[in-house]
Design goal:
By secondary structure, the chain is α/β, with parallel strands linked by helices. The chain is built from 11 helices and 7 strands. It is 53% helix and 13% strand. Strand 1, helix 1 and strand 2 form a beta-alpha-beta unit. The longest helix has 40 residues.
């Protein structure tokens, strides 16, 4: 399988915070799975010997002092030049032997992102119930707003094309970065795919940095902001409908009283109802205006995306299939 992408520059990107126990096996396993790849470990303000362990295992170690996975991903995508990028975690939960499968699928179908859909292996303790149910809930929200093309939206195991990485304007700072990547692909209608990959438990002695409630709330807020930013017409139409419905409900008794007596007996309610209807019209107008702005932004992002080399072009340049 390695012959299909021989000669191409592949970068394995591993963001790390306090992964001294796990990082060396991760580096060695990806070296074995993708011998031609460069392994980059970005130490994210660790207080243990993560950087030293990664360097001893043969990785190129760099640092990002701003805490948060999103900050590290933004730095990695800006710094590293490659034809294909493979993003994984430093906790030894993702299946390194699946890496060639992700890269091969990216090249064979000329895709921009292939997600490793997690399938739990071992004793069933890797994928906590809270994480699993939260993933389903958040993925359902994204599917409702942007369309269902990916099942495991929060997987951190992904292969990317160069044109995806260099057109991805990362904004998030934490674990919500996977949500942002997914919405970037869905909003631009980029070609993506998923393949099943085994998912294991963390090594004994290491602890997860993900906090279910806190990070789940941050991801939900990210989805809310992305909905507002990428689908403003739908977002503000919902608000317009809410304000209009509330205005009509409040106006009904005022109108009935006026028809019976010829007087406006609930003047404050009438003013409130009028104000809410004005808010409904303003929300709808905002939606139309911002939708035009978003279309222009999306077109600019699309042009930036198209200015970079596709996986098929990179393979041809290197004499591959």
């Amino acid at each position: 399988m390695g012959e299909a992408f021989a000669g191409m520059k592949i970068a394995v990107l591993i963001p790390c915070h306090n992964e001294e126990q796990a990082i060396a096996p991760v580096v060695r396993s990806f070296q074995a799975a993708l011998p031609q790849a460069e392994i980059y470990v970005y130490d994210n303000a660790s207080t243990d010997r993560t950087a030293q362990a990664a360097a001893a295992a043969g990785a190129q170690v760099r640092s990002e002092p701003l805490k948060g996975k999103g900050n590290v991903v933004r730095r990695m995508f800006a710094d590293i030049e490659a034809d294909i990028y493979l993003l994984t975690d430093g906790d030894d939960t993702y299946h390194a032997p699946s890496a060639p499968l992700l890269v091969a699928r990216l090249l064979e179908d000329n895709l921009d992102m292939v997600v490793g859909r997690r399938r739990e292996s071992g004793n069933g303790e890797a994928y906590r119930v809270g994480h699993r149910s939260g993933n389903r809930l958040l993925a359902g929200a994204v599917a409702l707003i942007f369309g269902r093309r990916l099942v495991d939206m929060l997987s951190g195991y992904r292969a990317f094309s160069r044109r995806f990485v260099k057109s991805f304007a990362a904004v998030s700072s934490g674990f919500e970065t996977e949500t942002e990547m997914t919405v970037h692909a869905l909003a631009l209608r980029l070609p993506v795919a998923e393949i099943d990959t085994p998912y294991g438990a963390r090594p004994e002695g290491s602890a997860s940095k993900l906090r279910t409630l806190r990070d789940g709330a941050r991801i939900a807020f990210t989805i809310f902001n992305l909905f507002r930013g990428e689908r403003p017409l739908a977002f503000f139409t919902l608000w317009a409908a809410f304000f209009a419905a509330l205005s009509i409900v409040l106006a009904i008794p005022v109108v009935i009283a006026y028809l019976e007596t010829g007087l406006v007996l609930r003047f404050p309610t009438a003013i409130l109802s009028t104000g809410l209807m004005l808010l409904a019209f303003l929300s709808q107008a905002s939606g139309f205006i911002l939708d035009a702005v978003t279309d222009a932004r999306r077109e600019a992002k699309r042009l930036n995306y198209l200015s970079h080399e596709s996986p098929a072009e990179a393979a041809r340049r290197h004499g591959g299939a």
